[in-house]
Amino acid sequence: MRAKTLAATGLLLAVLAEACSVGILGLSGWFIAASAVAGASAYSAFSYLAPSGGVRAFALGRIATGYASRVVLHAAALRRISVARLAVYDQAAESEGTGWSGQSLDRVMADADTTGMALIQATTPVVVAAVMTAGGCVAIVLAGYPLVALTLAAAVIACTVLAAAAARRTDDTTRTRGLLRTELVTTVEAWPEMASLGATDQLAHRTLQHLAAFEGRRNRHAATTARALGGTRAVTATALLLTLLLTARAGATVATLVFVALLSAGVLANAERLVTAAGAWAQSRQADAHLASIGEEETRRPAVAKTFEAMYDGHGLTVAGYRLPETPTRDAREIGFAVAASQTLVITGPSGSGKTTLITAIATALRQRPGPAVVTAVLADDYLFTGTIADNLRLSNPTVKDVDVADLLGVMGLDRAGVEPLTNVGVGGRGLSGGEQRRLHIARALVTQPDVLLVDEPTTGLDPDTATEVLHAVRRRLPQAVLVVAMHEPPGDRRPLGPNWTTLSVG
Ligand SMILES: Nc1ncnc2c1ncn2[C@@H]1O[C@H](COP(=O)(O)OP(=O)(O)OP(=O)(O)O)[C@@H](O)[C@H]1O
């Protein structure tokens, strides 16, 4: 079933379930009162069978539709969540290299969940309240009490206004909580470094300030909701009293009075739920807005010029129209180059000259082109996942055999450092040294057997001999690949790059 049909079915079932509840309330109230009156009069011909059968039918209907609505609405909400999550993943994949952190992904996932659950927490109570109010008012008008129906409708409208006003003042506590969690995690991680700088007091002060701000927001939020709920209860209590008075003054029988009172109570109970529904609706609006703007706050990568083109045709890589920005050491200029298969290009330049940005732009452009070419980029801040060395290698190629893993560790010189396939890398790879992490990043790229391999600073953290060994291993393993490496300086020993290599200085 399509998501919209599923949601509509769920809403219909939820309305039916609530209608059954109100039906039980109204009918049983009327029945009890009418039985009491009939029982008191001698030789009464009052039918006990039909109303009690009706109450049982409502009870069974409520159970069936209640369960069914829950199942269907959850299925619809889960579909919404998966659609929203997939959109986030797609966007994260497209914006590769723009600094998506685990924490920001975590936050947008929470936003996707809020958007999906809005169907249950916001839409359903509003639809149920609207239909029940309309139905209740029609029933009361048909029973001959239009003024009572008007009072009921006015009370529900007043509750809606109160709920909407409270929702407008509601803070985005979900997001605040997410930001606070991020702050706390960062604080724990930064603690040893801050301790070595003698700055733990400042760190603690900063964290406490965030905690206090969160506490303040949460209290404000709770107070706003409590005020709105208090206001709503005052309105519904007054409305209930008025409906009773108006019905009694119109000369209703006791049974009808009880029927109208209970029906009104059912309708007003739904109106009270509008406060929490409006809060959930406001949160989901905020989550939608965040989802619509995802990537904007993350994008650190500058936009590339429209003239930029990168292409790999099986024989080599061609880059044209790439615009380097002006820096203190050079004017802005446009560059282009070609690197044949089996050739190596070393891009050199001082810090901040734009090497990483160029490599990322090429990788993204090549991946956006249709075709079977495998393009792999190793960037400076590549992530290692908690698990073993073998787990990390198999992330990029699940078919890698144990013997290949051991072999790769050998060619990267990692076995000498005591690193084995089953060595745990620790959180984010922090169980390994910087140089070991770098070699593992590169080994992970090698197992994808890329046609084009782009590596940013392949020798970071390595001594000259190990750096030579690693570059050698890369070229030997991928004899036919286009290899582009970005380095501050070309390596001292250039032999490992193979006979076919050129440099491009962007400094
Ligand atoms: N083509 C470009 N257009 C606009 N800005 C750019 C471009 N290339 C790089 N920059 C900006 O210049 C700065 C440095 O870029 P980048 O990190 O790519 O340099 P780098 O040479 O890799 O530096 P490092 O060696 O320190 O890692 C960044 O702020 C980046 O946004």
UniProtKB/TrEMBL annotation:
UniProt KW keywords: ATP-binding, Membrane, Nucleotide-binding, Transmembrane, Transmembrane helix
The keyword Membrane is assigned to this record: yes
Keyword Metal-binding set for record: no
Superkingdom of this protein's organism: Bacteria
UniProt domain ABC transmembrane type-1: residue ranges: 8-283
InterPro entries xref list: AAA+_ATPase, ABC1_TM_dom, ABC1_TM_sf, ABC_transporter-like_ATP-bd, P-loop_NTPase, Type_1_exporter
Membrane topology according to the record: Multi-pass membrane protein
GO molecular function, one term: ATP binding
A family per Pfam: ABC_tran
Transmembrane segment boundaries: 29-50, 117-141, 147-167, 252-271
ABC transporter domain residues: 299-506
PROSITE patterns assigned: ABC_TM1F (PS50929), ABC_TRANSPORTER_2 (PS50893)
Localisation per UniProt entry: Cell membrane
Name by which UniProt lists this protein: ATP-binding cassette subfamily C protein CydC
UniProt organism field: Kribbella orskensis
Organism ancestry: Bacteria, Bacillati, Actinomycetota, Actinomycetes, Propionibacteriales
